[in-house]
TrEMBL record, chain A:
Keyword annotations of the record: Cell membrane, Membrane, Transmembrane, Transmembrane helix
Domain of life: Bacteria
Protein name: Hydrogenase
GO cellular component terms attached to this protein's record: plasma membrane
Phylogenetic placement of the source organism: Bacteria, Candidatus Staskawicziibacteriota
Transmembrane segments: 30-49, 56-79, 91-113, 125-142, 148-168, 180-199
Naturally occurring in which organism (per UniProt): Candidatus Staskawiczbacteria bacterium RIFCSPHIGHO2_02_FULL_42_22
Keyword match Cytoplasm: no
Bilayer topology annotation: Multi-pass membrane protein
Record has Cell membrane as a keyword: yes
Family matches, as InterPro entries: HyfE-like (IPR038730)
Automatic annotation (TrEMBL), chain B:
Superkingdom of the organism of origin: Bacteria
Name of protein: Formate hydrogenlyase
Pfam families given in the database record: NADHdh (PF00146)
Topology of this chain in the membrane: Multi-pass membrane protein
Length: 215, 309
């Protein structure tokens, strides 16, 4: 696949994270996460075609099952069950959130992070963009009040790290990848059960409403 | 030489001649999506004809501003329409294709429109102008930065020079995408479409553009409506020809110009379709949510400029 197409996939990941910051609806956030995971899947398939390493194909298959199908499916069911159409609000208002997004993107592209983004000099622009997706995902976790949005933020951060690793050419052993994916799938199940229980107990997924534990 | 004269004339008359058709197409698509037959796509022309043959009623409190504003607003759209790349990337008729000139010439129109709204002292005109200026102030940043992004990528502030370069081919896909999204939001705000304004209503709670021209009738209303349609086509032309410059005639050749006109028609219809779909599937936003949307347009463009670095 051409570099332009790989760049396009990374840009899709970046745009989906920006969209996750803007959207108010949980269903839209899940849809965006699904698209993001699909982009990661295509990146992994591309790596398989480039290296011919069969383990990458196996990882791609697992990513497809866990991140593209299972995770969005779990969350969609959760929303349907608890009627969580709109997500909780953010700590910062929209203009401030957007200013922070621009600042984080600028920060990731600054020379201060060049030791990280210069791992492969040819991919410096792509690595800067991947680094900014990591920053934006971290900020998504911090800025959102809704538990579901925070979970999507964590998963999005994981996708960003995978994207960074792919473009940085970091070694990803089969065992490590399977471990991470197994972790995510178990974590998904636990998070879904916990969210259901929290919603039953508190009637809300807004973390600011959960400061005092109910008896 | 003859082809140059034809291109020159086309460049000047294309926007005013075809702009009402765009409005007609959008209305027709919206009607179809609402399971209505709707009026024909040429209905805006009939409306303009009818208005040009009607008498006017002008308030006794109206000053020269109210009387002159329709001519100024209409003239501004004609000048801007002739100064942007429509179907040929070499035909700078007026020599004023600089992006800042275009932005601020359009701002003159908005300024006089808002002045005309408050000139009579009516409540509707006053709040319409107030809302319009709030929106215009916020949209302007996004508009400038959006064109600035493509200007930086192309290394020129001349819109005709920008339209000669393909932004995507230059490897600036993400900055171009962000700038395009930003310009699309500004397009909707500046042309008073959903989710910023509802062009089909005169409900006092929601109207912005319609509130300012509420006192107009007859020929002056026709000019205002025509100018509004021109502005829509100008923004469509900017969005389509700066970000998707394929099909533009690069030299004076009758075949190339004909193909360019056809491509421009296709691009315009696609934009009309998207606007009609948006207007059919999303609701108008509350006024206090609109600054957020315009802020998104502005930040998209700031991020785009950061990414160019």
């Amino acid at each position: 696949m051409s570099t332009l197409f790989l760049q396009f996939l990374l840009q899709i990941i970046f745009l989906t994270i920006v969209f996750l910051h803007i959207t108010k609806k949980n269903l839209d956030a899940i849809f965006a996460y699904g698209i993001q995971s699909l982009a990661i899947l295509i990146l992994l398939i591309n790596s398989f075609f480039e290296t011919g390493d069969i383990s990458l194909l196996f990882i791609a298959l697992l990513v497809c099952i866990v991140k593209v199908i299972l995770a969005p499916g779990f969350f969609a069911q959760l929303i349907k069950k608890n009627e969580l159409i709109f997500s909780a609000s953010t700590y910062l208002n929209m203009p401030l959130t957007l200013v922070v997004l621009a600042t984080l993107t600028a920060m990731a592209h600054s020379y201060r992070f060049s030791p990280i983004t210069n791992i492969i000099p040819a991919n410096e622009t792509l690595l800067s963009l991947a680094l900014s997706t990591m920053f934006l995902s971290l900020f998504l976790i911090v800025n959102r009040k809704g538990a579901l949005s925070q979970i999507i933020g964590i998963l999005s951060l994981e996708n960003s790290i995978v994207a960074f690793a792919i473009f940085a050419g970091l070694e990803q052993s089969l065992g490590l990848q399977i471990g991470i994916l197994f972790d995510i799938s178990i974590w998904l199940i636990i998070a879904t059960v916990f969210i259901s229980m929290i919603y039953k107990q508190f009637g809300s997924l807004d973390v600011t409403d959960m400061k005092k534990l109910k008896e | 030489m003859e082809i140059d004269i034809i291109v020159w004339i086309l460049q000047i008359i294309l926007v005013p001649v075809t702009a009402p058709l765009c409005v007609g197409i959008i209305r027709k698509i919206k009607a179809k999506l609402q399971n209505r037959r709707g009026a024909g796509i040429f209905q805006p022309y009939r409306d303009l004809w009818k208005l040009f043959h009607k008498d006017e009623v002008i308030s006794k409190d109206a000053s020269w501003i109210f009387r002159c504003a329709p001519y100024i607003v209409f003239t501004v759209t004609i000048v801007v329409g002739a100064s942007i790349p429509l179907f040929a990337s070499y035909s700078d008729v007026t020599g004023s294709g600089n992006l800042l000139v275009i932005i601020y010439t359009l701002a003159i129109g908005t300024f006089f429109l808002a002045l005309a709204g408050i000139d009579i002292g009516g409540a509707f005109g006053g709040f319409g102008s107030s809302r319009e200026m709030t929106m215009a102030a916020l949209a302007e940043g996004g508009f400038i930065f959006s064109l600035l992004t493509v200007g930086i990528i192309s290394g020129s502030t001349d819109l005709f020079a920008i339209s000669q370069n393909g932004l995507i081919q230059q490897g600036y896909l993400l900055p171009s995408t962000l700038a395009f999204l930003g310009l699309c939001i500004v397009l909707l705000a500046e042309t008073a479409r959903f989710p910023f304004d509802n062009p089909a209503t005169h409900l006092e709670l929601t109207m912005i553009h319609e509130a300012m021209i509420l006192e107009y009738s007859g020929k002056k209303l026709a000019l205002m409506e025509w100018a509004s349609a021109n502005k829509l086509l100008i923004f469509i032309a900017l969005a389509s020809n700066l970000f998707f410059p394929f099909g533009l005639a690069q030299h004076a050749d009758s075949g190339a110009v004909l193909v360019a006109l056809a491509v421009f028609a296709v691009k315009t219809i696609i934009f009309c379709l998207v606007i009609a779909l948006l207007e059919s599937f999303i609701a108008k936003f509350r006024f206090f949510r609109l600054p957020d949307l315009l802020m998104i347009a502005f930040i998209f463009n700031v991020v785009a400029i950061i990414l160019i670095h």
